[in-house]
Design a protein that fits this description.
The chain is about 35% helix and about 25% strand. It starts with 6 loop residues before the first strand and ends with a strand. It is α+β, with helices and mostly antiparallel strands and about 200 residues long. The chain has a 6-stranded antiparallel β-sheet with strand order 3-8-4-5-6-7.
């Protein structure tokens, strides 16, 4: 099961490496996921206030302009946006400033049970809405590209009793073993942010 999404210059979502702003290129991942959910909600749910450009034809020039609008709300910082609440506070302020106060965000901390997390992911994707994921440290080298990083989850599949999620980052998508992803091996964990009406 997968949600809709968008392409930009052949990439699946925005590629953070294409920022010309070095701060956003190096630490703008939270802002990227915020921009992406706004584009998604504008494109598929008619939330026109969230994205001030054409959501049906997202261009690199428009995305960079939009990222400059989003940057003050989720600006890169020394330790990154390493808490779900910081993300929700920043994006919630943007929602409020655009008059989109009916969009709800729910944090799902990484300390929660993996089976509960799987059910929550499935429920969101089944409702047609992607979610934001924060992974902090991880002991499994398969997830090196996703450590201390925000990215989107736009789908799930169950194969041989394992749950796989479609993770979107740097203009690409890949399927990740969700149970392994969730078990970071560290006490300091990230988690998920769900969006709903």
């Amino acid at each position: 099961m997968e949600t809709g999404y968008y392409y930009i210059d052949g990439d699946y979502g925005w590629n953070q490496e294409k920022f010309t702003d070095p701060i956003m290129k190096g630490g703008g991942c939270a802002a990227v996921t915020a921009c992406d959910i706004c584009i998604f909600l504008s494109r598929f749910f008619g939330e026109k206030n969230l994205y001030p450009f054409n959501p049906q034809e997202v261009t690199a020039a428009d995305y960079k302009k939009f990222s400059r609008i989003m940057k003050p709300y989720l600006h890169p910082r020394l330790h990154g946006i390493d808490k779900l609440e910081t993300y929700i506070d920043g994006l919630g302020k943007y929602f409020s400033d655009t008059g989109s106060t009916h969009i709800n965000m729910r944090p799902f901390p990484g300390e929660k049970d993996v089976n509960e997390a799987v059910k929550a992911v499935m429920k969101s994707i089944d409702a047609g809405i992607p979610l934001a994921c924060l992974t902090l440290k991880h002991k499994d080298s398969r997830f090196d590209d996703y450590t201390w990083h925000w990215y989107m989850i736009t789908g799930y599949d169950t194969i041989y009793e394992k749950t796989w999620v479609k993770a979107v980052s740097y203009g690409e998508w890949t399927w990740l073993d969700f149970e392994a992803l969730w078990d970071t091996g560290y006490t300091q964990k990230g988690g998920l942010v769900f969006f709903s009406y």
